[in-house]
UniProtKB/TrEMBL annotation:
E.C. designation(s): 2.1.1.222, 2.1.1.64
Gene3D superfamilies attached to this UniProt entry: Vaccinia Virus protein VP39
Lineage: Bacteria, Bacillati, Actinomycetota, Actinomycetes, Streptosporangiales
Keywords in alphabetical order: Methyltransferase, Transferase
Name under which the protein is recorded: Class I SAM-dependent methyltransferase
Species of the source: Microtetraspora fusca
GO biological process: methylation
PANTHER family: JUVENILE HORMONE ACID O-METHYLTRANSFERASE, METHYLTRANSFERASE
Molecular function in Gene Ontology: 2-polyprenyl-6-hydroxyphenol methylase activity; 3-demethylubiquinol 3-O-methyltransferase activity
A Pfam family this chain is assigned to: Methyltransf_11
Domain Methyltransferase type intervals: 31-121
Domain of life: Bacteria
InterPro entries: Methyltransf_11, SAM-dependent_MTases_sf
Amino acid sequence: MAAKNGKRWNHNIHYHPRILREVPDGAQRALDVGCGEGMLARALRQAVPHVTGIDRDAPSIDQAREHRDDVDYVLGDFLTHPFEPASFDVVASVATLHHMDATAGLTRMRDLLRPGGVLAIVGLAQSTLPNDLPRDLAGIVVGAFHRAMKGHWEHPSPMVWPPPVTYAQMRALAAEMLPGSRYRHHLLFRYSITWRKPQG
């Protein structure tokens, strides 16, 4: 189903505002990891002067580059691309971390942040039954309501399913690797992690 009223909606886009709210005042450089066709990167550009989006899917990057903006779209592997360490004030990632080894991904994101910079992640994980069943059932109902009201935009990027880690595993990994981070398990089959890199 196409988006209604000219506005795109899906479960990932629903949580873009959560990412954008985490952009720190005065941020100069932002990185969108797994940028796809660039929707979040373009939104970040409204708040940050210099935005880079990276994705290893060539058709998605081609679509991103069709837009008239000054976002730097890079075709490449985030884990190996030669970004300078500690060079971004914001590192954002939506529905990308499950495409790579989570520990390697979090380590790379952490290393690319400047002191005081913010990491903002929205991701997918596997539910654990029966613990996650009530939330999942509620998510199905709420998701159906959103689709009925807003339509559903299917992104062009490759998908990975099922995610290789559970929500509980991601929560534990975030606590271990990003001390002081905030983890939330959201209704629409997503989790979020936000973390500010300590100064010094």
